[in-house]
Each structure stands twice: as structure tokens, then as C-alpha cells.
Amino acid sequence: MKIRYQLLLLMIFLCLTFLTLGFLAFQHPVLLFVLIGFYWVTMLLLYMFFVKHIEQLNKNLVDVQSKASIEKSQENAKLPAVFSKKFDLIDIDDGNIKLQDRVHFNEALSKTLSYAKRHNKSTAILIIDIDLMSGPMKANVSLDDTTIIEIAKKFSHVLRNEDMLAKLDGNEFAVLLNDIQKPKFASAVAEKLLQAIASGLKASMGICICPLDALTLEESIEKTYTALYRAKSMVGSHYQFYTKELDVEAREYTNIKDALQKAIQNNELVLHYQPKLNIKNGSVAGVEVLIRWLHPTLGLLSPDQFIEVAEDSGCIIAMGDWALREACKMNTYWQNEGYEHLTVALNVSSKQFFHPNFLTTLTEVLHDTKLNPSYVELEINEETVMNDLEKSAYILKSIAALGVQISIDHFGIGYTSISHLKHLPINTIKIDREFIHGVALNPNDSAITSAIIALAHYLGISALAEGVENSEQLEFLTQQQCDMVQGYFLSYPLPAEGVVQHFKKISDRALS
């Protein structure tokens, strides 16, 4: 207001001055030059006046806005329920709260962490990942909008008004539990959220308690995901709290994953071969191909140390394709060198089996290596086949049409129906080592193993026992007329350069 009055008085003064000088200049023309000079001086003064006061006005405006922002932040901090302003992604009319998106969830989490640190409060972050319980590519299947909204509605009934529910990327939800008294409150909520999930869905949940486990937005999200990944590795629906031990495992996992992605390019992967013995005639019927990783610092790693990481990271597809090509090339080499024609058997992961390019890759490898398809055998896990029986049957029939042999791995521990089994183009059933381990001592294992061998023969399928570790097991399997055996009692997996010589030693020992 003060500036307005100053400006008004200045304008009145200038108008009176111009009128006076104009009147005098009309009577005395020489004063015209004085009037012109006064005009330019006046313009300069006005310019300086406006610049000075406009800068002051801008400064005052910024101060006012800054003060208002601070007051608003302080007000929101007192009520970290964020929730003073709603940013709706989906409006859940019959729920307690509304579904937010990632941006607004992060904004709320940042404010809540700040509030919790200042007022010695605790908050819990829950990230829930939902998968289809069945299906070959269950981890990659996105839920439809209707299912997402239904899940969000159920979640909203579990949560309090001051909590927050958000939809993240893919099939992930996030929950922010404000001002919890003890971590066990988060456990109770987690259990209710898991119970709210419909049947046919698997829910994995990671939980991080702040500021106990993390102080910043980035750290809290990272540690919640660390717990989530552990929960996802379990069978069925589970929740997992973050722990320091998980952090160590996560770092090891990341190191393995990063190194594994370079292993193929760096020629660090190698193949070992374990012979399979034909009990009836004592000859080597073939070899199972087993991948190994010659790590530059950790040495030779077995599949148990990296296959799970390969599955999770997606490296398993490239790794499987590489193993298929290398094994076929080696078998072609052995045949060209005059060795007996043997079958190379390779394990095919679920992701590789259902990959759209799998059949194309198999066809190309057979063509490029010029290997007779009958000397290639693909081992498919029983669970993989049953995850999507219709699609599995199509792929198996396509593989059989190429002339490739097919075996069902880990048979007996899954839920393959005999009625389904007889309609699939299977050449061999591999009896799981879990039953072979107890055949000489446990009557139940003996009965199950005998029944599987009889079933295989009834269906015209060969039976192979894996995990044979002693002479008693071999004797029992021989009496039950099992077709083939493999295991450490016969031979450990060997590199390519030693496996052929060892065949003869195994055959001689088995016959004796």
C-alpha cells in the first residue's frame, strides 16, 4: 500500500510540472528545450523507481510463498497420513482409502520417514507382488484391470484410514502403515492381506520397518525389495521382514547375477557329462549334460550355486541355448571320431521350454550341427509339463516330430496323471533320486520305485533311475528290470575329454 501512495503522489507531481512547463514554453519557446530535457530525466527516474520496487515485490512474494510452503509441510508432517490431499489413480468407493500411484506413494513415504525420525515413531513399508499360481510364464503375466481393482478393494478393507495403498509397476502393490507401535502389527496386517488374495494367485510380500531398518526413501524401498525377493523364492504365499542377513545375501546375489551375465561372452561356462548305463547289456546308453561355471575367482561352480540366479535374471534362456548347441557339436564330434553313437540329454528349464523361440532354436541347432535328432534327448521337469498341460502337449509333440527324444525328469514327486502321461510323446521316465535313495532300506520307496518301473514298461516307456550311489541300489534296480541308471556310484560328471575313456571302465565294472 505504501508503494501505491508513493507512486500516486509522484504521478500528480509530474503532471503539474509538465502542465506548468508546457504553459511557460508556449509563451517562451526557448523553454521548449528545457521541457524536452525534463521529459527524459523524468523517464529515467521512473524506470529506476519501477525496477527497484518490482524487485522488492518479487522478493516479498517469494518470501510469502516460502513461508506458506514451510507452514504446509509442518502441517502435513503432523499428519503424515498424506492424505491431506488425494491423488487418485483408481477411486475405490467401498473401501477405506484410495489407490495411489508410485509418485504419490514416494512423496508420502518421504514425508512419513521425516515425521517418524523427528517424533520417534515407526512406520512399515510393504511391497506385494502377485503372480498366477499356474502357467508356464506365471511371473510375466500381468493381471487385468478388473482383478487389480478387486484386489485393491480387498486390501483397502484391511487397512486403516491413515494408511496408504498404491499400485506400482506390473503386478505390484505398496502399502504404507503409519505410526505402528510394534513390528508385529505389520505381521498381522501382512497375514490379512495375504488372506485377502483370491485362490489361484500367489502373493509374495517384503516388509521394512523404518527408521529401524532404513532412514531414507531409497534405502527403505531397496530393503523392502530385498525382503520381497526372498519371499518370492518360497513356495506359496509368504511375507518376509528385512534383516541384515538378507542384505548380505542380496549383495552376493547381485554379484553372481552381474558376473553370470558376462559368463557366456567370456567363455566361462563349461559342460560336464555323466554317463547313463544300460543295465540289460552293460553299455553306455548316453550322457546327461550338466553345466558348470568356471568362475574367475570362485573356481568351478556347480549348478546349485547359480541356476536359481540364472532363472530369476532370465540368463537361463541364453545359457540353455548355448548348452544345447555346444552339446550337439560335441556329440557330432564324437561320432565323427568313430565313437559309438550316444544320446546327449539336456535339462530344459521351464522358461526355456515355453519360450516362443525354443522350437526354432532347436531346429536351427540340429541343422547347423548336422546331428541326427534321435541322438538328442530333452529332459523336461514333471512340474513344467503340468503347469500348462495343453501348451506342453503341443510343444512336446512338436519336439517329437523333429525326431528328438523326450524324458520326464523328477518323476514321482509331482502330480502327473497317468491318463495324461499316456497321451504325451515320452520316451523315458526318470525316477527321482528321492525314491532311489531309500530303495534298499525303505519298503515304501521300494514299492513306489517298482510301481513306476512297471508303469513305464506298461506304457512302452523306458525307466531310468537317477542318483544311484551304492551297489545295493544298483542290485535292486537290476532285479526290478529298470532300463537305465546313472549316479555317482557309476561315474561323477566328467569333462568332455575324459568321458569317452570312462565309458569302458563303467561298462566293465557294471558287467563284472
Characterise this structure:
By secondary structure, the chain is α/β, with parallel strands linked by helices. It has 3 domains: 2-76; 99-242, Reverse transcriptase/Diguanylate cyclase domain (Alpha-Beta Plaits, 2-Layer Sandwich), CATH 3.30.70; 253-511, Alpha-Beta Barrel (TIM Barrel), CATH 3.20.20.450. The protein is built from 18 helices and 16 strands. It has an 8-stranded mixed barrel, surrounded by 4 helices. The protein has a 6-stranded mixed sheet with strand order 1-3-4-2-5-6, sandwiched between helices. Helix 8 packs across helix 9. The model is unreliable at 64-89, 91-96, 134-139 and 505-511 (pLDDT under 50).
Please describe the topology of this protein.
Elements: H1 2-27, H2 31-78, E1 99-100, H3 102-119, E2 123-132, H4 145-158, E3 164-167, E4 172-177, H5 183-196, E5 201-210, H6 217-232, E6 238-241, H7 244-263, E7 269-278, E8 284-295, E9 299-301, H8 307-313, H9 315-336, E10 343-348, H10 350-353, H11 358-369, E11 376-381, H12 382-387, H13 389-401, E12 405-411, H14 418-421, E13 428-431, H15 433-436, H16 443-458, E14 462-466, H17 471-479, E15 484-486, E16 494-495, H18 496-511
Parallel strand pairs: 1-3, 5-6, 8-10, 10-11, 11-12, 12-13, 13-14, 14-15
Antiparallel strand pairs: 2-4, 2-5, 3-4, 7-8, 7-15, 7-16, 8-9
Helix pairs in contact: 1-2, 4-5, 8-9, 9-11
What's the total count of β strands? 16
Q: Determine the number of helices (DSSP H or I, runs of at least 4 residues).
A: 18
Q: How many structural domains in the coordinates?
A: 3
- Could you tell me how far the N terminus lies from the C terminus, measured between alpha carbons in angstroms? 113 Å
CATH superfamily of the largest domain: EAL domain
CATH topology of the largest domain, what is it called?
A: TIM Barrel
How much helix, percentage-wise, in residues? 40-55%
CATH architecture of the largest domain: Alpha-Beta Barrel
Runs in which pLDDT lies below 50 for 5 or more consecutive residues are 64-89, 91-96, 134-139, 505-511
Global morphology: elongated
Largest sheet: spatial strand order: 7-8-10-11-12-13-14-15
Q: What characterizes the major β-sheet?
A: 8 strands, mixed, barrel
Question: Rounded to an integer, what's the Rg over CA atoms?
Answer: 37 Å
CATH class of the largest domain: Alpha Beta
Structural class: alpha/beta
Share of β-strand residues: 15-25%
Mean of all residue-level pLDDT scores? 79
